[in-house]
Amino acid sequence: MLWLALGALLLAGFVFLGRAGGKPGGAGDWRVLGGILAVAALTAAAILAVRGAYLPAAGLAFAALVAATLTRRPPAVRRPERSRIAMSEAEARALLGVGPEADAEAVQSAYVRLMRRVHPDAGGAPGLAAQLNAARDKLLG
Q1: SS3 of the chain: helix, strand, coil, percent, to 5
Q2: Burial (0-12, 13-18, 19+ Cβ within 10 Å), 21
Q3: 103/96 Cα distance (integer angstroms)
Q4: What distance lies between CA 139 and its chain's CA centroid?
Q5: What's the fold here for domain 82-140?
Q6: pTM exceeding 0.70
């Protein structure tokens, strides 16, 4: 009976993944499948514990916790590289609000002043902060 229930749960998981759309084999598929396996392992551990098989139940419970922990990790966030934001020196000066005669100290001062306003930790936009970084790197690099 237990194997029938686990097989039905596994089949339901595959049907769910098939209907989810998108490209199969993506990172989201493994997270969903890991969650389904965690639930199945925890259910099997509970049934084994009720029947008195405590050692296999403990092993399955541990496996369920590991699978559940792995499915909770957020996907890696890719941030744009500074070198990918291409801008001319004139665009960089206009973005920072400095003229052609501005020295390194004036550029850094303008960068710090603007970054305090638009930094993502202060409620600003990550894209604008990346543009300011690229402008500073262009003028100081």
Answers
A1: 75, 0, 25
A2: exposed
A3: 13
A4: 32
A5: Helix Hairpins (1.10.287)
A6: no
Going from N- to C-terminal start, the domains of the chain cover 2-71, 82-140
Q: List, as one string, the DSSP characters of 35-85.
A: HHHHHHHHHHHHHHHHHT-HHHHHHHHHHHHHHHHHHTSPPPPPPPPGGGS
Quick: pLDDT tens for 55-69: 988 988 888 888 777
Residue 70: how many other CB atoms lie within 10 Å? 14
- Write out pLDDT tens, residues 8-19: 766 666 666 555
* C-alpha torsion angle, residues 102, 107, 108, 113 (rounded to 10): 120
